[in-house]
């Protein structure tokens, strides 16, 4: 992994518990690798690591699927006003904010 929990909590200043971070960091790193695949991002750069942290937080909070609504036991309600936003889209936005100015993100990302 490009980012350890120590880096996430101490350097990035993230607030996820270690278990939540550990459960999602692989997904966050894979997502940032996908964002940076064409332009050869340096996985040890500060911007890359911050992007992994940001994506990891988004996946931990929202998952990868559609966001909105809530569930209590077997009862669930979907919020249809979210216009289909997904956790993956939110992770992309969070990671791109950390990659601004690096040239790492490929041009196809909006």
SSE topology:
Elements (H helix, E strand, L loop, with lengths): L4 H8 L5 H18 L10 H17 L7 E3 L2 E3 L9 H13 L11
Antiparallel strand pairs: 1-2
Helix pairs in contact: 2-3, 2-4, 3-4
Describe this protein with a few key phrases:
mainly alpha; two-stranded antiparallel sheet; globular
Shape: globular
Protein structure class? mainly alpha
- What is the total tally of β strands? 2
- Radius of gyration equals 15 Å
- The portion of residues forming beta strands comes to 5-15%
Strand order, sheet with most strands? 1-2
Residue runs with pLDDT of under 50 for 5 or more positions = none
Sheet with the most strands?
2 strands, antiparallel
End-to-end distance:
26 Å
Instruction: Give the integer mean of the pLDDT values.
Output: 82
N-to-C SSE string, H for helix and E for strand: HHHEEH
Q: Regarding quaternary structure, how should these chains be classified?
A: single chain
Relative helix content: 40-55%
What is the overall number of helices? Answer: 4
Description of the molecule:
This protein has 110 residues and is mostly helical. The protein has four helices and two strands. The protein has helices spanning 5-12, 18-35, 46-62, 87-99, and strands at residues 70-72, 75-77. Strands 1-2 form a two-stranded antiparallel ribbon. A hairpin with a 2-residue loop joins strand 1 (70-72) and strand 2 (75-77). The chain is globular, with a radius of gyration of 15 Å. The two termini are 26 Å apart.
